[in-house]
Amino acid sequence: MSDADLIAQNFLGLPPETAAYATARLVVLPIGFEATTSYGAGTRGGPDALLAASRQVETYDPDLDLDLADAPIHTHAPVAPDLSSPGAMTERIERVASRLAADGKWLLGLGGEHSVTLGLVRAARRRHGPLAILHLDAHADLRAEFEGTPHSHASVMRRCVEDGNRTVHVGIRNACREEVEFARREGLPIFWGRRCAEDEGWIAEALDALRGPVYLSVDVDGLDPAVIRTTGTPEPGGLGWWPTMRLLEGLFARHAVVGADVVELSAGGDAASDFAAARLAARIAALALYALR
């Protein structure tokens, strides 16, 4: 039996010789954790759904005119869920991500609920110092706590700010008064979904608001449900596909991006949503490896 007889289970279906850890520059880390979701469920299966869909994505990207068929991308074993508490899971993610960062790998996390971002950000901050976080989402995620836990998916950006990072929020359509007042006090820019729909001048403004090393966190409900429907808390009026691509291209062209995640995809059996999330992750990987800078 040869490798040609088997289906590669790696991101984008990359062959084992391409996907070896030792030679990889980028590592895809699945984190199928779900403990604090407050509406729709299924994010624990999001990484598997995204990875399965990615094996149907063409490795050639016509917009960037590059092919990921031989890209140095390793698909890591999933992080085991620690269901004792969301805080304990954050610590586990940080430990795993810190080991990968210490090996010089650029990390693309696949969630799972949005709370997984905190451990990834803490690992990136340990290596790179205070971060600017570009946060694409339908929700601000700046609550002090939600449903009895400060480690909720709805509080993840609040914890990141309290750690000494600065957040820039894009595509937001829903937030409570507490979050808006906190953002105003802290000087955290929010680019509301309606503004993002009216013209694309917001893209340059959002990129201008970033300083220093940048971490990218994409909750897929930041995109409109016409693009991705299977997510725990969908909101109408989200970002379109092409404005999102232009934002990402500008981000990597102008800034040093040190890590990223794609979170909150629910495994709902919707092939179109899974595929769109996989295309999004593939575009981030392509830009990370071959940034237009």
Architecture blueprint of SSEs:
Blueprint: E1 26-31, H1 46-54, E2 60-61, E3 66-67, E4 73-75, H2 86-102, E5 106-111, H3 117-128, E6 132-136, H4 156-162, E7 166-172, H5 177-186, E8 190-192, H6 193-198, H7 201-208, E9 214-219, H8 241-254, E10 257-263, H9 271-289
Parallel strand pairs: 1-4, 1-5, 5-10, 6-7, 6-9, 7-8, 9-10
Antiparallel strand pairs: 2-3
Helix pairs in contact: 1-9, 2-3, 3-4, 8-9
Write a structural description.
This protein is an alpha/beta fold. It has a single domain, classed as Arginase, Chain A. 35% of the residues lie in helices and 16% in strands. It has helices at residues 46-54, 86-102, 117-128, 156-162, 177-186, 193-198, 201-208, 241-254, 271-289; strands at residues 26-31, 60-61, 66-67, 73-75, 106-111, 132-136, 166-172, 190-192, 214-219, 257-263. The strands form two sheets. The chain has an eight-stranded parallel β-sheet, with helices on both faces. A two-stranded antiparallel sheet has the order 2-3. A hairpin with a 4-residue loop joins β2 (60-61) and β3 (66-67).
